[in-house]
Design goal:
Pfam families: Glycos_transf_1. Keywords: Transferase. GO terms for molecular function: glycosyltransferase activity. The protein contains twelve helices and 13 strands. With 349 residues, it is α/β, with parallel strands linked by helices. The chain has two domains: 148 residues, Rossmann fold, CATH 3.40.50.2000; 182 residues, Rossmann fold, CATH 3.40.50. It has a seven-stranded parallel beta sheet with strand order 3-2-1-4-5-6-7, sandwiched between helices. The protein starts with a strand and ends with a helix.
Length: 349
């Protein structure tokens, strides 16, 4: 029995792609083979995933489908009578994109509609967070279960685990995530403007992420804001980088700041915790669940208030250390909660 995985797209730095790779690694350890297939695969990622047109499905194969947006992949999977398993990563509400990318907005709306088809045709369903699980249950997935997202930090095992080695003298803000309207990089820029007006220009902010070319107008808007608000020296948007550069940027930063208004989990929160960055985040979507009882959450985007709170993290080492300590506990607890066994259990049944 092979256990194949499917998704709309594969890109190495993307959370769903990382999840598929980790599941494949864990399945291999248990003696199961299988490939990763997607409709859209960049040429430099084809050593990890194949185009769906190359999939050869055998009668006993199990098909695991990662859902986040409408694509032809679902129709392909539905053609086969094989056992089908959903892993739900959430579908971003279309309204975030309607002013920037009508096609993407349409695909998100169809992605929501696809859930009803999946509900009636798949054998088993999992969600990677309780936030996502609640969505499935609200639309009638009676037997959906939680399968916590698998994180692999072995690639960064040489990162020093003594967080007191990190410098907090010079504020170096970081956000990692797609350049997209729901991530609200525009609010990060507004925060930077407020910070500069109150605290001066001795800081940096980096926003790291891939931008869909069809959403270039949002990126253009961000670049206009940066220059119009006189932030070109302090605020930088960095496109997709490889793992070694990502590690370097995390190591150089000393605070993770998120204004995102929709997350089904948000892997970069956990990555930031791993690198001992205090996390300050807008309490939207699954963000409170992901952080547990750690990090600093805010429910209103009052930038003056957020600046004051962030400033206290830099100035008060005991406060900062208590935040990082609680985050480390949360990360350890989360990593212990993940297991491939629930997926294997339904694949074998």
């Amino acid at each position: 029995m092979n256990i194949h995985q499917f998704s709309a797209g594969f890109q190495l730095g993307d959370a769903i792609s990382q999840e598929m790779l980790e599941i494949k690694r864990l399945l291999n350890k248990e003696g199961y083979q299988g490939k990763i297939f997607a409709e859209n695969v960049f040429s430099y990622d084809r050593k990890y995933a194949e185009k769906i047109t190359k999939a050869k499905i055998k009668p006993n194969d199990v098909l695991v489908y990662h859902h986040s947006i409408h694509s032809d992949v679902l129709d392909f999977v539905l053609k086969f009578p094989n056992r089908k398993i959903l892993i739900y990563h959430n579908v971003t509400p279309e309204d975030f994109f309607s002013g920037y990318d009508l096609k993407f907005s349409y695909l998100l709306r169809k992605g929501r509609e696809d859930l009803e088809i999946i509900r009636d045709t798949f054998h088993h369903s999992f969600a990677v967070s309780n936030f996502n699980l609640n969505e499935l249950q609200e639309i009638g997935f009676k037997h959906a279960r939680l399968l916590p997202l698998h994180l692999n930090f072995q690639k960064w095992k040489d990162v020093p685990r003594d967080f007191k080695l990190k410098s907090f003298d010079f504020p170096s803000f970081l956000f990692v995530g797609r350049i997209a309207p729901n991530k609200r990089q525009d609010d990060l820029i507004r925060f930077a403007r407020t910070w500069k007006s109150k605290m001066g220009n001795q800081f940096s902010m980096r926003m790291l992420g891939f931008c869909n070319p069809n959403q270039q107008s949002y990126l253009d808007e961000l670049n206009f804001m940066i220059h119009h608000l006189d932030l070109a020296e302090e605020v930088k948007i960095i496109s997709y980088v490889d793992e070694s550069m990502l590690k370097k940027i995390y190591a150089e930063s000393n605070m993770f700041l998120s204004m995102s208004e929709h997350e089904g989990f948000c892997v970069p929160l956990m990555e930031a915790i791993y690198f001992h960055l205090p996390v300050v985040a807008f309490a939207a979507g699954a963000v409170p669940e992901t952080l547990g009882n750690s990090g600093i959450l805010f429910e209103s985007k009052n930038f003056d208030s957020i600046v004051s709170q962030v400033d206290s993290i830099f100035k008060k080492s005991d406060f900062r250390n208590s935040i990082i300590g609680a985050q480390n506990i949360r990360l350890d607890e989360y990593l212990q909660s993940t297991s491939i066994l629930p997926l294997l259990e339904v694949a074998r049944s």
